[in-house]
């Protein structure tokens, strides 16, 4: 077994360090995850729609964003935002707050993936439906809102949940640039005392605490989105029976 | 059905992880090993079990830094570790295997492994290495986890700043960001020094994994000051930065071994103290031009 895993002295040391290290780290990771996810979703929807647009420059713009972000490692991107980007703007050393850095880092990275998820979701809907809608006088946005997107959501929810979970876990890359997140404090405490088993086990549990509800929520939304139409019809029949 | 399969999968994962982390089984003494042990018996007479294990294995596994000039630097051309701390490792190996340090070096009785501030602790505890001789500062907290020898070198913390930052002493660090290495005790020591001098200086501390990351953060001005032991700092000085005069928190480097290897710790302690008393430690320091 891992040495000292069940050593009470080490666990006591951990509980003492908990408020100082793990609580702020957990909150930072949670905040970065939530805001980062919002940014990633916004970017994903915008670029996902752009990549299915008829206007070609939009599609090209979206391709450039997606390919560039998808094909470079996140670690490199974060280091780039951390040290190279500020150098471009000023030589005196502009410093981005770590929270913003984290949100931008994971937001832009997963935004590209989510944009791909949304593009494939939209393309999965047979083209005949858009054509039928436009023949009935629906505008592009109306077609999207009433016909395409409701069907897309069912298709994209599972891969979208994957992205959300990946985003939470990828916030740990911030530890590399002293990001004050959960992983940073875990490394910090673990290496300070040498109680690595306790440090990393606790950290894993805390990441799980963030990820697990998110996974359940995604599953719930997925099931709900499948059942919605049937539920509606049942209500109407019930009303008619009462009447 | 789903639940059963899940629990089965979990059990398998548990078993796998336990086997993976499990300590290596004690090697049963085969005939070949017995003769080998017999050959070195002159050195191993009455040796403690943990020392005997090293003699049987034939090499002493030592964790050293690979990136600190004069202390322990891996020669990129030959792959050899060269420096003051590596010479200490050869001396200790000589003591264990009953030969001189030069013979130990010639016969390659020391297997070096590059370590960082972060990896040296776990590697020692897992038994991947027998000793850590890697600018490892002796502290009371660490003494609870590892065995330390008498200090073989005393170093102090230094502060490296960019020349164009206008910082000339520790007083200029108020509200500035000081980058320190993970699992270094720089933060406490710096705060203590500020306290002792009665200064009203409140720097912020940020920890980084590894010195190159710190040097990079300083070069790109994401931190104002790079603070670690002077021995390490000297490797990162260039024409754009300078080490401040402030020299504080003298700290002692010791040879560390795993807590349960008491026999090895006693042997190391004996060797280090004898090297200090007969002046050979001083000679080694002079050889590597350490003050």
TrEMBL record, chain A:
It is a multi-pass membrane protein. Belongs to the binding-protein-dependent transport system permease family. HisMQ subfamily. The chain crosses the membrane at residues 32-53, 74-93, 99-118, 164-185, 197-218. It comes from the Bacteria. It comes from Lacrimispora xylanolytica. Residues 26-218 form the ABC transmembrane type-1 domain. It is found in: Cell membrane. Pfam families: BPD_transp_1. This is Amino acid ABC transporter permease. Keywords: Amino-acid transport, Cell membrane, Membrane, Transmembrane, Transmembrane helix, Transport. The lineage of its organism: Bacteria, Bacillati, Bacillota, Clostridia, Lachnospirales. NCBIfam families: HEQRo_perm_3TM.
